[in-house]
Structures are given as structure tokens and as C-alpha cells.
Write a structure and sequence with these properties.
There is one protein chain. With 414 residues, this protein is of the alpha+beta class. The chain has three domains: 3-78, RNA polymerase II/Efflux pump adaptor protein, barrel-sandwich hybrid domain (OB fold (Dihydrolipoamide Acetyltransferase, E2P), Beta Barrel), CATH 2.40.50; 103-164, E3-binding domain (Dihydrolipoamide Transferase, Irregular); 194-412, Chloramphenicol Acetyltransferase, CATH 3.30.559. It is built from eleven helices and 19 strands. The strands form five sheets. Strands 9, 12, 15, 16, 17, 18 and 19 form a seven-stranded mixed beta sheet that branches. A hairpin with a 2-residue loop joins strand 13 and strand 14.
Length: 414
């Protein structure tokens, strides 16, 4: 037996520790070199830690939920593949307190089929990370094939099923008598990432003199351009033409005209950026993350769409890195994909402004003395009033509106 120690690798600058999330490999499982064996959550991102060697996992030194420092021992792998421990024998379910836990105890053989179906999510053993994804997407875990030990679902199993479209969603429960088969409440420890998101959002509110200004944009021209060229665009660049590339380019132009929106306060100085690193808010199973399109002012529409699509996949698969989320100077958040008609986004400190996009909705508009139906979107710019004056904030938002309502401005840099 040749044992190789697996330690927590360096996870990024200023990151001193992480929290063990979900073990992707169990004791006795074969492990390939560079194959992920565990998820680790830091205060900025959740990532997978690969095994540097091939072999068999013989020990999990750290348990799920443990906080470990960079360089700490978390597992041991037998590189000769002879150290596999036999699976522990199943414990008899004789004790009443254990049998009362619906998340750990299988359904009794006499249970009615309907009852077993309705509570399959509670009866199937899942790690907290997997359970979050199942609940977020309202999935029936019985429709996903588990590849973990004893058929246990892994995060990869669920994500692959979602991507393939093979995972069934649960039917909405009938609101009648309260269920008696499970607890009425559940207490789950906040993840490190969720705690950090909460802390930073509150810090932004406490520190900045935050204000929001609103406008609305007629999306007719953008939608016409997109419909006209989307097939050619997809054929040439192998990516769909979305709205984000229009908004990103419009924001880059507006940031050049109103540089205060692209600046931040450091001590008693204002730091102005002569480039635009645009953060794009992306939803992930672990919460909202904001990867950054570096030097977006130099990116084409295709570069922007490919970059956003790549970040979307990485967020979904839990492969976002620290580098992906560092260096942003301005953020765009699209609440419209969830149906939001209007909101006031919170600053992504230390940035001084964030643009909120919203749902496109047809509304009657008075144009040239005529009432016409147009696809309209509300825009919201939240900004730090300590550095950005009201005139600058309004000017920025108007320039974004003008560029979107006349997309030729994006080509002419106007």
C-alpha cells in the first residue's frame, strides 16, 4: 500500500481557509488522476478539488461542513489501489429516534405508492449540496440515476440530468392537511458563500450613499436586429445572439462618457478606470456569483456572448475560479430572466454602480401623437452618491437607453 496525502490547495489570493462541501468520492471508490473528489466552499466561490494521483480513496480525514485551512490534510489515496475498505454493514433500524428521520430512513415496505412518490425527495439520502439543487429545480430525485456509493446521487448526476432534460420535476403539492410524515421545519447551516454574500451586501448598504435612478428603454430596434441576424450570427459564431451583448456594449460606451460611474473610492482618493471590466451576475446552485468580462470594451458581440455562456456553464457545474470573479469595475444584473419588472439592485462593492435589467413587457406608448404597443424594459442604475452626482447617473442611463434604441450607435461608437 502506497498512501498519498490529499491537501487543500491554494484557492486564491487572500483565501486562508475553506469549508468542506460535498464528498464526490467515498471511501473505497476508485479515483483517477485530476478527478474531482470533494467540493470546497470559500467566502468567494465553491470549487472542486481534484486528486493529484490515481488510486483508491481510503480515508476522508475531513467531514462535510468542516472548516479547514489551506494546506490541511483532507483525504488519503492508496496509489496501488489495494487499500479499499469494505462498505460498512447496514445498521438495523430498530431505534425509534433514528427511524423518525425522513431524510435518512427509507420508506416502509407497506407504504402506499402515492405516499412514496410524494415524499421521494425526503426519503432519498442526499448531501446538502445535492439537496439544494434538487429543491431549487423542484426535481424528483427518483428520476436521476445515482453513480455514488450505494446508488447515492452526486452533484454531477443531477447536473447532467438537468442538462440532458431527463430529470422530472415534482408536481405541485396539494395544499390540504399538513403532512405528518416529516418535520414542519428544517434548520440548515448557511454556506460560507451565502454568509459572505449576505455580509457584503449589508456592508454595501452601510458604507455607500446608495441611490437608484430609473428609466425605460424601447427594445424594438434591438429585437428587430436580433431577429434579423440571429441565424447568421449563430451559424458563424456557434453561439446564440442574446440581449446581454447589446447591453454590455452600450454600457461600455456610456462608461467612456461618464467615467465616474466606472470609478471607486479608495481612502481619500477616487480611482478612475480606463478600461471596462464588466461583471455579469449569474445564478448558481450555491447562490449569486459575479464573473467578470475582462476588457469588455474591446470585445465583439460574439466574444461577449461566448464569455457569458462559458461563465454560465462554469457556475452551473461549480467550476468557477477566483480569477473569474476578480477585477470588476461595473456590474450588470438581469432580474428579467426571473420575471422581475422593477427592482433596485445593490452595489457590488467596491464598485460604485450597477445596472439592473428587467422583464421586457409590451406596453402602450405615446409616440408621435399615436398610441402604439412597444416592447419596453425598465432600467435601474444604483450608484454611490458619494462619488457619482445625480446628473452623471441620469446621463449614463440616458446614454445606455439611446444606444439600445438606436443600435447603430454601438457600431459608430456614439
Amino acid at each position: 500500500m502506497a498512501i498519498e496525502d490529499i491537501v487543500i490547495p491554494q484557492l486564491g489570493e487572500s483565501v486562508a481557509e475553506g469549508t468542506i462541501g460535498t464528498w464526490l468520492k467515498q471511501v473505497g471508490d476508485a479515483v483517477a488522476a485530476d478527478e474531482p473528489i470533494v467540493e470546497v466552499e470559500t467566502d468567494k466561490v465553491a470549487m472542486e478539488v481534484p486528486s493529484p494521483v490515481a488510486g483508491v480513496l481510503v480515508e476522508q480525514v475531513a467531514a462535510e461542513g468542516d472548516t479547514v485551512e489551506i494546506g490541511a490534510l483532507i483525504a488519503k489515496v492508496d496509489t496501488e489501489g489495494k487499500g479499499a475498505a469494505p462498505a460498512p454493514a447496514a445498521k438495523p433500524a430498530a431505534a425509534a429516534p433514528q427511524a423518525s428521520s425522513p431524510s435518512l430512513t427509507p420508506a416502509p415496505a407497506t407504504a402506499a405508492p402515492a405516499a412514496a412518490s410524494s415524499s421521494s425527495a425526503d426519503l432519498m439520502p442526499m448531501s446538502p449540496a445535492v439537496r439544494r439543487i434538487v429543491e431549487d429545480y423542484n426535481l424528483d430525485p427518483a428520476s436521476v440515476t445515482g453513480t455514488g456509493k450505494d446508488g447515492r446521487l452526486t452533484k454531477g448526476d443531477v447536473l447532467k440530468a438537468i442538462e440532458a432534460g431527463s430529470a422530472r420535476t415534482m408536481s405541485a403539492p396539494v395544499q390540504t392537511v399538513a403532512a405528518t410524515s416529516g418535520p414542519r421545519e428544517e434548520r440548515v447551516k448557511m454556506t460560507r458563500l451565502r454568509k459572505t454574500i449576505a455580509s457584503r451586501l449589508k456592508d454595501a448598504q452601510n458604507t455607500a450613499a446608495m441611490l437608484t435612478t430609473y428609466n425605460e428603454v424601447d427594445m424594438t430596434a434591438v429585437m428587430e436586429a436580433r431577429n434579423k441576424y440571429k441565424d447568421l450570427f449563430a451559424k458563424k459564431h456557434n453561439i446564440k445572439l442574446g440581449f446581454m451583448s447589446f447591453f454590455t456594449k452600450a454600457c461600455c460606451l456610456a462608461l467612456k462618457e461618464v467615467p465616474a460611474v466606472n470609478a471607486f473610492i479608495e481612502g481619500d482618493e477616487i480611482v478612475y478606470h480606463n478600461y471596462a471590466n464588466i461583471g455579469v451576475a449569474v445564478s448558481s446552485p450555491n447562490g449569486l456569483v459575479v464573473p467578470v468580462l475582462k476588457d469588455a470594451q474591446d470585445m465583439s458581440f460574439a466574444d461577449t456572448e461566448l464569455g457569458i455562456a462559458n461563465y454560465g456553464r462554469k457556475a452551473r457545474d461549480g467550476k468557477m475560479t477566483m480569477e473569474d470573479m476578480q477585477g470588476g469595475t461595473f456590474t450588470i444584473s438581469n432580474g428579467g430572466i426571473f420575471g422581475s419588472l422593477m427592482s433596485s439592485p445593490i452595489l457590488n462593492a467596491p464598485q460604485s454602480a450597477i445596472l439592473g435589467m428587467h422583464k421586457i413587457q409590451e406596453r402602450p406608448m405615446a409616440i408621435g401623437g399615436q398610441v402604439v404597443i412597444r416592447p419596453m424594459m425598465y432600467l435601474a442604475l444604483s450608484y454611490d452618491h458619494r462619488i457619482i452626482d445625480g446628473r452623471e447617473a441620469v446621463t449614463f442611463l440616458v446614454r445606455v437607453k439611446e444606444a439600445l434604441e438606436d443600435p447603430t450607435r454601438l457600431l459608430l461608437d456614439m
